């Protein structure tokens, strides 16, 4: 969805709009990623994982092709918005597939791998797009994105399988039929769609999911704010980066995301082994404290470096710390939520995805004006304080609430 983040200046010149206005072409797509995930939940439960994985991928490929061929900002933004609506399904469907395929002990490790792969995307994608755009133009860059969607669609067709457990005694349908949702679940479609439509609304307001969702909203907002605005700063004094240099800066985000993966990998193993005899699901949430501190330090480093016009290494280091916080926090909360509500994996995944994308959508509208009014140093200092306070106010109540429950709770509560 942020593939074009390094191309907004060229697009602005092409369409005759301001760079700030050109950058908002991503915002509606980011918002609709959240709603698209919610809409997908009943369909995934009624028709199975595979068809709701495959066909939105096909539609998304066509939407990116439409954006590539667009001749004005409005048409381009429309196609990009629809890309977000349909293209969000892999962010949602991964958690239920992990639930289907792996044991409970393996869930945190697999969530860590899955979560890191799609959280690296917002930084790796714009870097590749910028490199291509620097050598050709933005349309060629989006043509490459269309081809990437085509390749991924073919991979789903060739290697994707239905992972949903069919009821005992019912045989699997043929592979061709499974692409169309025939025989994947063995459930009545109408009643299943209605049941899960109601269920997802109920679970949005479940106390643990509501509180941890607020944590995700805050910890995802500021990294996406950096992702969508950093090019404006890098192309301006004192940095004056060209397109290649600005695109290369995105690898700081990639490094941070991979470091967040490493932290989540070791922490989840350590916390489980240390408390295996008196295990509580809520202990997973202790995995947010270090990442939140890392994010706060990163926001301060990034903001103060830019405020005083210091070397770009400070920006890169700050961004690395911010992304360590983002990835490790989301992984910890996703592992907790799946372990807490294993039979609602699809629902939980969509809800967490919704909070994540709402934060990413909102920041593009208020952050530029906020920086212009109060200055970048103050803004990022306030953001660091918000991250810490929000984590304490949302995670601590869930930990206290968990202590009042049974020593081990893994089912619906």
UniProtKB/TrEMBL annotation:
What highest taxon heads this organism's lineage? Eukaryota
Signal sequence annotation: none
Question: InterPro entries in the record, alphabetically?
Answer: MFS, MFS_dom, MFS_trans_sf
Keyword Membrane among UniProt keywords: yes
* Residues passing through the membrane, by range: 25-44, 51-69, 81-99, 111-134, 140-161, 200-226, 246-267, 288-306, 312-338, 345-366, 378-401
Q: Which PROSITE patterns match?
A: MFS
The main place the protein resides is membrane
Question: Which UniProt keyword terms apply here?
Answer: Membrane, Transmembrane, Transmembrane helix
Q: According to its record, how does it sit in the membrane?
A: Multi-pass membrane protein
Could you state a single Gene Ontology molecular function term? transmembrane transporter activity
Q: Where in the cell is it found?
A: Membrane
Record keyword Transmembrane present: yes
Short name of one Pfam family: MFS_1
Gene Ontology CC: plasma membrane
Domain Major facilitator superfamily (MFS) profile residue range list:
1-413
- This protein is called Major facilitator superfamily (MFS) profile domain-containing protein
Originating species: Penicillium salamii
